[in-house]
Amino acid sequence: NAGVTQTPKFRILKIGQSMTLQCTQDMNHNYMYWYRQDPGMGLKLIYYSVGAGITDKGEVPNGYNVSRSTTEDFPLRLELAAPSQTSVYFCASREQVNNQPQHFGDGTRLSIL
Amino acid sequence: GNSVTQMEGPVTLSEEAFLTINCTYTATGYPSLFWYVQYPGEGLQLLLKATKADDKGSNKGFEATYRKETTSFHLEKGSVQVSDSAVYFCALSDWGFTGGGNKLTFGTGTQLKVEL
Question: Which of A5, A68, B50, B105 suits a disulfide with B55, CB 3.0-4.6 Å?
């Protein structure tokens, strides 16, 4: 019962470094999402994808990039890390059928110093 | 645009007390409503959902009724346990939204602490 798997769980970056947050799901879900969670702010959508090869911006896409080459994987890339990107990042997926819930990974806690 | 407003926390209760966490929403279409729960160090898990007006979602003793007239989806539980301590998020998904992806709009979360 893997569900949505995110790696790494924790990471510390220096300003200006780059990294990729990995997300994979084994439920054959077409829809996938990246959120960031800041204290007291709920979750904000960064990017989403409705299928392999199709991605679109969410509310807060600046400073991030995504790709979706397979149904299973939806990596999130930070090119030039900034302190404002310190957050907890969650990946989620869901079936294409209406009214189905999103399934979340356990998150990646990222600190940029 | 869509928005969700939740009561601020933390909410601190004694075990076996009655719980209400208020949630109201604004949506342009015909939303489905969800409650998610987040335990420390974990991702969000679906607690319950309701897809149309007057539907009642329920799970693990928690209930919430979709009230279109008051645009509310308040979470209730008759007798909380220490193990219910977590952060609770109200969310909506507007199936009438044509932006694609049926995105969720979240409230800011309400932390619940249950003490013995």
Answer: B50
